[in-house]
Amino acid sequence: MKFHQGKPCYLSKLRRLASCVPAIMFAAAVALAQDPVEPPGGPLKVKLLPAPAGAISLAQVHPSDLRNTISGLVSCGTRHSLSSWTDPKRGIGCGRDHIVAEFKKIAVGSGGRLRVIDDRFEVKAPRTGNRLVPMENVYAILPGDDPALAKTVFVVSGHYDTMPTDIMDSTSDAPGADDDGSGTAVSIECARLLASGHYRATLVFAAVSGEEQGLLGGTRLLHYLEQKGYTVGGMLDDDIVGADFAPGAPHRVRLFSGGGTVDDCDSPSRELARRVEEIDGRSHIRMIFRVDRLGRGGDHYPFYKAGLPAVRFTEPLEDYRHEHQTPRVVDGVQYGDLMKFLNFDFMARVALDNAEALRELAMAPAPPTDLQIGGAVTPSAKISWIAPDDPERAGFEVLWRETTNPRWSVFGFAKSSGEFVFKNVSTDNHFFAVRSVGKNGARSIAVPAVALMPRKR
Asked: For domain 366-448, is the CATH number 3.40.190.150?
């Protein structure tokens, strides 16, 4: 280490850098001030409708119910997808029985409106030994009240299968308290919180199998919904949402979303993530702009690849000693996905984030369609869109954002579909979108405007 005047050289450099910070900040501010103001008079003043009344409170979420659900699942020993479907005390069939019983209990409180379905199917994949094996998903479906939107579904899902250290080991204990007893419990808790309500769109509360064997249950869920003629308005995948290991808790839950493949236009999944964050608040949701953790996958992925809005909730920082590990103690360190590592207060907040997002999305009008942007090589951007008639819709919020800004802002409001002109706003410096707004204040996810014209050289 070199010294300068009796002090470490790096300290001298740090002090010189610190003295430059005000100048750097001033230069950045000047650069920002030198950008043209668009529009010249500043953004329009828009009066926004408040969010829908009747928001779910944290006091309505029952950590004890989450604990009881996971305790029942863990009692099955293993819920490996290749374990027994018929043994009532050990194996994945035991887990299915617990889930069906929970959903049926909630269905009674819904006045019979909540329908519980045991979806049985067969599938072959590399992680089934390339042989056809039975699988079962469990769905609780709450039909929407609006005939125009009842075939639109908003889905929350967790997977109830588990694995030990060896992905093909169907006999060793694999309690799966966090992965993914937690996500399954969140899906069931959302059903409890929402089943007595009435919504325009249909809600699906799912617990799927086969995730560890290759996203088999999530893929089946997508196909089931397609076969039944549903349109997926949004899919919330909860996978590993039960712990908050890092010092300084509580922390925000992570929300993963893929960006898509269209130039200058984020995917429906990214727009769903933005809407969820707006509903639940930035203090609770940490948006992660990638489809999933590096080298990992979840049941939202088949939906995302199909071009549908799908996101994944996952705890703030994972402890891999407690995922995909056969329970054991090595050098005094406990391995295994055990209940004692769960944080039920954190999990309750995740359940609330899911339930409130589902509530508001299912109350909203359908999103606009056919968003197009024009006005290239002119002073003013123009966007157009269409939407079906809807007596419950108040109109449309017209959105914009800097190309580097992760969040939308409201630029204007339109009572009907058609064309909107951003007077003296360039097409090139911002992205634009539109979302529907109900008279009840519920908002659809945003739909970005895309250019359909060929690019000019």
From this structure: no
